[in-house]
């Protein structure tokens, strides 16, 4: 597997470029910004982007999606429960003081039990509402890897004080779905360093059961 993790934009959203070494088909997850750099990685590995997957409709994760679609022709996938948030990109841009990227068109909704795929690489979509209503994580069972968006971070969890957030729902998503994954699963959070499910199960103050 080819996997490049590029922190993009002022909030350093972890954008993942994931490619199949045999077919060179690829997924790009959360192209929030810095699309020139993302395209550089795609070129470096000679990849053909098949799907652009968005973990949730916050501007730092979705802001560059249209530019990437224009450059690659790949469809943009987002859970439909975040379509309302996606209509507020102008408001979100004002929150963090960045330029409004303009309207983002979603080609397809993805939800629980769907799969995303590039060549032989396959990920199960897990719907994990809480940070936003339409937040999803992508689990690659063969590679034992989770792309967690802003649901789970090393030592922390996503904030729930923004529109569509729910602290009850994020804890429920984490306890019922995310912590159901094997301990040796590598977690790529939406921001910050990598971790594992086992590490978070043991030491994340939001998840440890006392
Ligand atoms: Zn977010």
Structure characterization notes:
The protein contains seven helices and 13 strands. It is 25% helix and 28% strand. It has helices at residues 35-44, 59-62, 65-72, 83-86, 89-96, 167-178, 197-203, and strands at residues 2-8, 13-19, 25-29, 48-53, 76-77, 115-118, 121-127, 136-140, 145-149, 152-153, 156-157, 186-189, 195-196. The chain is α+β, with helices and mostly antiparallel strands and 210 residues long. The strands form three sheets. Strands 6-7-8-9-12-13 form a six-stranded mixed sheet. Strands 1-2-3-4-5 form a five-stranded mixed sheet, covered by helices on one side. The chain has a two-stranded antiparallel ribbon with strand order 10-11. It is globular. It binds zinc ion. Zinc ion binds at residues 56, 58, 131, 150.
Protein topology:
Elements: E1 2-8, E2 13-19, E3 25-29, H1 35-44, E4 48-53, H2 59-62, H3 65-72, E5 76-77, H4 83-86, H5 89-96, E6 115-118, E7 121-127, E8 136-140, E9 145-149, E10 152-153, E11 156-157, H6 167-178, E12 186-189, E13 195-196, H7 197-203
Parallel strand pairs: 3-4, 4-5, 9-12
Antiparallel strand pairs: 1-2, 2-3, 6-7, 7-8, 8-9, 10-11, 12-13
The chain binds zinc ion.
